[in-house]
Structures are given as C-alpha cells and as structure tokens.
Amino acid sequence: AYERRFPTCPLIPMFVASDTVSEYKSEDKAIHVIERRCKLDIDAPRLLKKIAGVDYVYFIQKNSLNRRERTLHIEAYNETFSNRVIINEHCSYTVHPDNEDWTCFEQSASLDIKSFFGFESTVEKIAMKQYTSNIKKGKEIIEYYLKQLEEEGITFVPRWTPPVECKSESSTSHTRRLVSPAVNIPDSSTKEALNNKEILNTSGSPSEPTAGTPDDKLDADYIKRYLGDLTPMQESCLIRLRQWLQETHKGKIPKDEHILRFLRARDFNIDKAREILCQSLTWRKQHQVDYILDTWNPPQVLQDYYAGGWHHHDKDGRPLYVLRLGQMDTKGLVRALGEEALLRYVLSINEEGLRRCEENTKVFGRPISSWTCLVDLEGLNMRHLWRPGVKALLRIIEVVEANYPETLGRLLILRAPRVFPVLWTLVSPFIDDNTRKKFLIYAGNDYQGPGGLLDYIDKEIIPDFLGGECMCEVPEGGLVPKSLYRTAEELENEDIKLWTETIYQSASVFKGAPHEVLIQIVDASSVITWDFDVCKGDIVFNIFHSKRAPQPPKKDSLGAHSITSPGGNNVQLIDKVWQLGRDYSMVESPLICKEGESVQGSHVTRWPGFYILQWKFHSMPACATTNLPRVDDVLASLQVSSHKCKVMYYTEVIGSEDFRGSMTSLESSHSGFSQLSAATTSSSQSHSSSMISR
C-alpha cells in the first residue's frame, strides 16, 4: 500500500513527481531497496520562493524493505538548500512484538536551519506546518491505498519464505552481482538497513576490503556493454574499490564507470585511486556538485558571451564540445563574473558531459566514458593572457584534473596562432601527462588536410565556422560590455580578489612627465608582455631599447606643478640629455590609447640590453592650417583634469627557454605589438570604444 503513492500521490498535492535514482533486489527477493528523488511544491509565500530562486524543492527518499524481518524503513533528506537547511526524517513500519497481526509505525525528524537569506524563522514555521500536516494525513493516505487494494481483491500478502536453493545471507553478502546491466548495486544502502536490526555482522575492519572479494566476478555482458575491456586484475581492482566504498563511505556511491576513471588515472593502483576518489567525493558533497545541473542557472552573461557548447558527437561516439576560445573575452568574463562563477559553469559543463556519456553508451551500445573537445583559437591574442584570467584558468584546470580524470578522450586545437606557445607554457605544467598525450594541435588551415578534422569528425557535422556545412549553435562570444564589469568593492565583498591583486600597479601620467618601466633582458628572443587599462585621459604607449642602463629611477617633482599623486606613482628613466637614435632607439611604433581602453600586447626582443616601456600624455594636435586649436581639441582637453592621466598596468617577461621547443615557436619578428596587436588589440579597441559610445 505504501508503494502506491509513487511516482506521485493525488492525496498529497505538494508531492509533484518522483524519479527512481537506484534500485536493488536481493537474489532471494527478501531485500528490496529503492531510492527516489522527489519533487515538492512547498506551500511558501511567493516572495520567499522568488528570493530563494526556486519554485520546487527536492528530497531524496530511500525505502528499505526487509521481507525476512517484516520491516520497512524510510529515510528522507533534503537535496535543495542542503548547505543552508538540513532536514532528516526517519519512518519505520514493523510487526508488533505481542501481536504479529498489528503493524507499528514510528516517525521522527530533525530540522537544522543554518541560514536562509534572513528568513530563518519563516522557514522554520513553514517546515513545522508541513511536517504536522504530513503526520495527520499519513494514516489517512495509507488507509486509502489499503482500501484500494481490497477493492482489487488483494487482502493478503503471503509471508516470505527462503527459496529452497538459496544460500545463507552471510555467504551471499559477498556475491556482488548486478540484477541488470544498467543498474549498480547500492550495497551500502542494503547493509545500512540490515545493520539497523543487527542482522548482519561483518568481521574485520570496514576500512579494509574483505577477504572474499578477489573471487567476485562481474557479469561479462555488463563489462562489455558498460565498462569496456578489463583484464582480470583490473576487474578485481574495481570490485575491491567499490566494496571498500560501500562499507566505509557514507553517502552516494559513484557508478562503476566513474570509479573506473579514477583507477585508470592511477594505473589501477588501488591505494592511489582510493585516495583521490575519496577526496573527490568529499569535494562533490561539500559543493553539491551532484545537483548543479538541476539547481544552478548560469548568469545571462555566460549564456551570451561564453563561446562554448555541445555539438553532436565524434566518429567514436564521444560527445563533442566546441569551444571558440579565440572569440571569447576571458578578461571581460572574469571582470564581470569573478572566478567562482566561471568555475561553477565549467563544472556544469563537465557534469553535462558525464550525462551525455551515459546517454551515448545506451545509444551506441558500447561503453563511452569520455568526450572530445574541439578548441578553435582563431582570434587568440595577448588579451587572453591577462594574468588574473590565466590564474582562473589554472585553477579550473586543477579542479577538473582532480575530479574528472579520464573524461577527456581527445582535444583538437585548431588554428593555433603564434601567441599560443606563451599560453601553453603557462598552463601545460598543470595538465596531467596522460591528458597531454591526447592533444592534437593544428596551425593555420592544417586541420583541413590529411590527418586533420575529417579523421575524427564526420563531414556532416563539421561546424560552419570551420568550413563545414553544419550550423553550430555555439555562441559567438565577443567583448563583454564594460557596463557589466563588477567593481573592485563587489569582488572584494564576495572574497573574489582577482584583478585588484598587487600584480597590477597604478601610475599617474602628466603632461611633460611620462611614466616609465625598466626591463632588463639578458637573452635575446625573450618575450615582453603587457596588459594595461587607461583609467583616465588619453596616452601614447612606446617601447624603447638601450644598450646602457639609465640612471636609477627618480620621483619627478613635476616642475612648477608640484602635484603629488596618491593614486599612483610616476617614474622617469630616460635622461633629458639622452638623444633618440644615439643613446636609445624606438623598437615599436607609438600607439595612441584612449580613455577606457584595455590594451594587451607582446614584443619578442631582438637584442639583450635594457627595454623601457613608456606611457606618455597624449597632446591634442593643432589644426594644420592655423595655429589656433580646434573646437574639438579644446573640448577634449577640458575632460583631462590638470593634464593628468592614470593607468593600471602589469608586465611580465617570458624567457626564450620557456617556449623554445613548444609545438610552435614564436616568430622572431619586430613584435606582436605592430603585427599581432595591430591586428587584434587595435581592432578590439575600436570595438570596445564603439560599445562604450553606444
């Protein structure tokens, strides 16, 4: 009668739906354990639901029926808002000790509200109201279904008796066989139910695999269908690790496919695999990763400007994820969202990848445990090497490597530009060696030739932006409007201190007093990189080279202005007696940068010596036919208070040995400033300016 209330019950209006998460039946049919995910429409004020951001809440309910002992144990806990509110409920149906024709019912529950947007007392009242209502209606509901069974002619259920050829519970407890190829045995649930009545006593420490495990076998068809080729040793490792988890881990036991990923990541070393798997399970529980797809909605900024998405599958049946990294404004996304939102979005992508692997396994009839990622680098430039953005990328790689091992089947990197080795130098040390072997990198249009994209992806699904005929619905990315950027205070309030870290320095630039930074280069072919924001005024950016060191930096008195700059320093290095062309030379053409622009670039050094990066006040040119200034010039000059500009900048030198020997080498040309930046930074600047003006 109790099972009749599933998957939904008309007598419980708040009970909208339920889905079976896992199910187990013992061979002798004495034990039946079923776990469901229940969807509830809580009777709460609309305002509270809007603040909480949910319309429904989800509970996990596990029912353990023991026909041998004639007991039904029911456990339930909340999945939604579990980091804020903890609800646990226990119910049991048992036979009365004095009259076995009577059924005893016991129910208990606990509520612990840690925090709930300042509505703790309201939530407590709602919870108590719902719980009291459920208690009053519980007997009514069970009697309703008992009467329904009687009307169907079912008035008696025969007492369970052990099959004639059934083994004892102690011997069968060591036989781990799956009822069907698609379902894993939730042994931990069964043992937990049995242990409540102290029926089963196991010997030995629960942290050690039992002695009988090596003799266990997995069904051959199940292995072929869901796990792939396994040697007897590998199969034994999987069984040992799974049984250890079932006996020691309190919580959801991962599926065999996921356990197998951790074993493969550690070459089937059980101790090492167990260590990283336990760390990952703890991490998943702490951050509620199992429910991220159902409970978290990505911000609109990510949906509009994150240039990535799923796109069919490759020739091996692996789900295909397309990432147009070159078209994505990583700096803008970090400035608008912070590191945590980006990480959470990447985690949701990986969780969706796991889900798609399961679906493709069913569709293609063979085990598919990983996906293929296609990364298009067309448009990649120094903006993508913005240090906080790289820092966020490294953290994402670290988290994914630790918790999603062996999920990347192949990584196809297309149209890699000459700036790519710089990015590769920064991120490759954080990528596992086994993962790195799966990388295939193509420069230019090499992906269109032999050994290219057609070897891995069917012609019919090659995206249109790569010359294919298949329309790809992945967002095109583009620059994130600066109006969406978060302020330093907002980031700080959320403990996300990214771009405000000390790696960025602030400098003031005055008319007649530029700000200069000295960089000493020992080895030629080193790469000088820079990233700066023009916070106020217009400036001219220059790069100079000198064979001799300038005098030690000195603070400029700013002449008659006598202006101090609390918001940034001002350092001048080039001596006034130095002559351009004799004492120092210009290695880049001057670049005029407007207020509000972000500029990134690089310079591959030709000679050792001293390089000087200079930010200089930009004076408005006078009209060519008259000595009188133009009206536009006068109006523009009025916007620059006291002839003062302000920049925030970061510079870094990457040694030649760091990128020498990479898949591609940086061109030893004049620089990326005139060639790379002219093609990318300048165009992005004009785009950014037009965005601001609009």
UniProtKB/TrEMBL annotation:
SMART domains: CRAL_TRIO_N (SM01100), SEC14 (SM00516)
Residues in GOLD domain copies: 500-653
UniProt KW Cytoplasm keyword: yes
Predominant cellular place of this UniProt entry's protein: cytoplasm
Record keywords, A-Z: Cytoplasm, Golgi apparatus, Immunity, Innate immunity, Phosphoprotein, Signal transduction inhibitor
Family annotation (PROSITE patterns): CRAL_TRIO (PS50191), GOLD (PS50866), PRELI_MSF1 (PS50904)
Assembly with partners or alone: Interacts with RIGI (via tandem CARD domain); the interaction is direct. Interacts (via GOLD domain) with SLC18A3; the interaction is direct. Interacts with SLC5A7 (via GOLD domain); the interaction is direct.
Function per UniProt: May play a role in innate immunity by inhibiting the antiviral RIG-I signaling pathway. In this pathway, functions as a negative regulator of RIGI, the cytoplasmic sensor of viral nucleic acids. Prevents the interaction of RIGI with MAVS/IPS1, an important step in signal propagation. May also regulate the SLC18A3 and SLC5A7 cholinergic transporters.
Stated name of the protein: SEC14-like protein 1
Gene symbol of the encoding locus: Sec14l1_0
